[in-house]
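Long-time lurker, first post. I've been practising inverse folding by hand and with some scripts of my own, and I keep getting stuck on stretches where the structure tokens seem ambiguous. Below is the full token string for one chain I'm working on. Before anyone asks, I'm not after the true native sequence, just a reasonable design that respects the backbone. If someone could post their per-position residues I'd love to compare against what I wrote down in my notebook.
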């Protein structure tokens, strides 16, 4: 299976694990069962002022992907990215610029500006965005290493509600497409991978499950199966029935 390339970075796993809703005792087990190599981290979770630090629970071989959660403008996203680089040496940053507190939809305009600012500062930007072709092109041209469209509003577990628009990005944008937000079940993650997306990011669906390690493993298997199916070539659908056996050699009366 080909590696996942994000700028100058390469990974074997196509499962990006979010950490925003995990309790610290279970996050290491989730990483292990997910076989994840990247975990996202909001800067405000890295050090809370308490004795426990989330970084203490993340294995050293895991790549930390800080996000700019809390940023409302491109300039705020850049400031958070610089703080993350100081804190954990991260060069790869997930851009989140959200001004809407009700629907939590990303601000595509400010996010595109943030991509340009971060790229000029030497970061590898991965922008979270509402799937729109014109925005994706602008982000690519501004220096994005990948495009991260939402499948559905964050935390809703509704799946690929934006599937048709993600397909347009797959067809037109020559960058890794990573589905981020909204995937609520292993079947939905498998469906996304079968489309040909490069990776998926999962947080809420695992963190809110009854058995976090088991659900992380289920997502891992689904992601791997979906990728294998895409590489193998999914059979096209047909409006007419097709016999699974040759319609010859019938017994004669």
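-- Answer (accepted) --
I ran through it position by position. Result:
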């Amino acid at each position: 299976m080909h590696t996942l390339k994000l700028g100058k970075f390469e990974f074997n796993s196509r499962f990006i694990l979010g950490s925003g809703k995990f309790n610290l005792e279970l996050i290491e087990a989730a990483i292990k069962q997910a076989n994840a190599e990247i975990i996202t981290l909001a800067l405000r979770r890295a050090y809370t002022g308490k004795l426990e630090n989330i970084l203490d629970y993340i294995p050293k071989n895991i790549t930390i992907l800080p996000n700019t959660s809390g940023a409302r403008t491109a300039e705020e996203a850049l400031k958070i990215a610089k703080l993350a680089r100081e804190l954990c040496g991260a060069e790869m940053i997930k851009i989140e610029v959200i001004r809407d507190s009700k629907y939590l939809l990303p601000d595509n305009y400010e996010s595109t500006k943030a991509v340009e600012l971060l790229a000029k500062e030497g970061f590898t930007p991965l922008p979270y965005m509402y799937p729109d072709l014109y925005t994706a092109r602008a982000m690519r041209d501004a220096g994005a290493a990948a495009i991260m469209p939402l499948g559905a509003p964050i935390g809703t577990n509704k799946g690929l509600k934006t599937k048709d628009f993600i397909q347009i990005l797959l067809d037109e944008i020559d960058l890794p497409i990573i589905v981020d937000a909204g995937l609520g079940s292993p079947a939905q993650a498998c469906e996304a991978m079968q489309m040909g997306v490069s990776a998926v990011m999962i947080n809420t669906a695992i963190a809110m499950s009854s058995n976090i390690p088991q659900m992380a493993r289920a997502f891992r298997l689904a992601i791997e199966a979906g990728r294998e199916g895409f590489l193998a070539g999914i059979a096209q659908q047909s409006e007419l029935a097709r016999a699974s056996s040759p319609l010859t050699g019938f017994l004669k009366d």
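A couple of notes from the structure itself: The first strand starts at residue 4 and ends at 6. The chain has a mean pLDDT of 88. Happy to go over any region you disagree with.
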